[in-house]
Amino acid sequence: MNATILPALAAGSYVHWGVIQISVANLIVIGAMLLLFIAALLVPFPGSANAARSGRAGSHSRSGTQRGQSE
Amino acid sequence: MTAAKRNPLIEAEPGPAESDRNWTARLRRRITRTVPPGQWLPDRQPVYVRSWIYVFGVATLAALLVVLGSGVVLSVGGSAWWHTSAVGHFVNSVHLWSVELFFAFMVIHLWGKFFMAAWRGNRALTWITGAVCFVGSIGTAFTGYLSQSNFDSQWISTQAKDGLNAAGVGAYFNVLNPARMLLWHIVLLPLFVGVLVIAHLLLVRRHGVVPPFDATPPGDAGRASIASDGSPPAVEVVAVAESIIISAQITTDPDDREVER
Amino acid sequence: MTGMAFGRKPDRTPDAHLFASREYDLVKEFVIATAVVLGLSLLLAGIFSSPDRKAITLQAWAQTAPNDVVATATAELAGTSTSASYGPPYNNAAAGQQIGPIKLQKWAGVRIRVDSARELVLNPLAGIQGDSTLADALHTWQQAGADQQSNWANHYADALAAAPDGNPGQVKSADYGPVPVLAGRFLQLAAGGGLDSLLASPNSFYPLDQTRALLLLSDGSYLEDQARAEHLGGDQWGMMNESGNYPGQPWMWLYTFWYQIKPFSTSGNADALVWGLMAVLTLGFVFLPFIPGLRSLPGHLGVHRLIWRPAEPDSRSG
Q1: What share of chain C is helix, strand, coil (3-state, %, to 5)?
Q2: Does B249 have pLDDT greater than 60?
Q3: Does ipTM top 0.85?
């Protein structure tokens, strides 16, 4: 199965900025990672603290004191 | 242990003198002490585990599985299979892209753990195993690039030899010998990374997810204020020095503190 | 284990198991993650595939860049090629790189002995049967002293460099001894495909060790020319790159960065210096929890406040 979208093995596209030379492909990867990281920090995670209050007795600790951590 | 009915064939409780001599009992106790009871696969997590950043550890693990799986399929066809077979080339592509995802998720996981100072609370070894895993993964990927048997391998090997020779290790790790590098790639380095991953996961299960800075558990009036500078105690420094053999650290009692009832 | 006097500052991070908990399905999370990653991998592989530029055989090299092959063979005979003048682990022609007084390359010693002239050029030629001109040239070369051999080879190398395109056919007439014949026959051997198997694991049926073949290939300029055309050169951040438009190894950015700037970019010890520097930085990375200042940085940076946001007010009602 050969590449269908990108040209195969021509010299890639590069961005030059001072001493920095980076391929467009690598730039996209790094950019995507940064976006993913920022999104992970900002996007709310499903479920709220209420779930803890209704938690059953935990297998969660040696002491088994996780039952009813609500005050 | 209650006096409930116990099948004597399964676990005869040895007396004190016997338990010291019985290697099986000693090993069993070490294994069960490694992680607190119920923590091998907990179905609950602390409430502060509530961010998407936490999924990148398991994403890295999942990517590693895909890397290993695609690598196993490549092994079936042999190292030159992907040059001559479209299916082989596709499997190679899966292997390549899963490696890219593996590194991407691992680095994001690393960023998250850094900003959480996740080494706090006796977790320095968790950080260390993760960091060494990262370095080991780079080495594994590197030997993978050497094993492509194509132009890339030729160039990478002839360039890399200069760095390795300058460090005095080039003869012991001869990158110009693809038969050797292939075995490093599929046996030695995956074994090294695999052991580290297992140790890393055990430590995460053992210590649990690091609490936030300045966090106080409920009903914790008796506890002193939290130092949030992220410094590990000196005992951890000694433990790291001693734990060249990791099992020495991970099989002693975790979190040496009295649990409040 | 008790604490010891280590400039100790107590870490009072509470036990994670003492906190309130909520239901969390690790196995489901893992299965979903695996499915997502597998799906992504299959998708990316299906769309973008992977690069596979064929290896440059010695035959292809000879057919595509014959002048480079002749020049390389001459340099091997002169002892001026990269491999011939490398030093450990291949020979003692040079001391190798060092970091100040630390000479790891030299101290490691010659462990993979390669006599470039003999193993890469003369031995393969000696296997050719039925060529009396070649046999005479080999005999003349072997009978001459080292100084004479060096004289011939270096003069021929200079002449090749002065010729248009390094073309052996346009070299000025002079006494180069048997070198032109040796280099010319070497080119024929390579172009005919006979050289590839002779250099891989000599005296073995299975060509498993490509050390000599790769040393010869990298002694020429063709391999590097091809690599540089794809931005794979050391001073092109090449360690990060891949052929074509594929992503490479972005995680190598810091390792390759040093090669782009002084003093590394102009140093003959660049590899040793960069390796040493990266070894120190890697140790710092691994043992970060023990480095004062660095280990307390996350607390000051405050990114953790985005991870551990306060619970919503309505969740605190019973």
Answers
A1: 60, 0, 40
A2: no
A3: yes
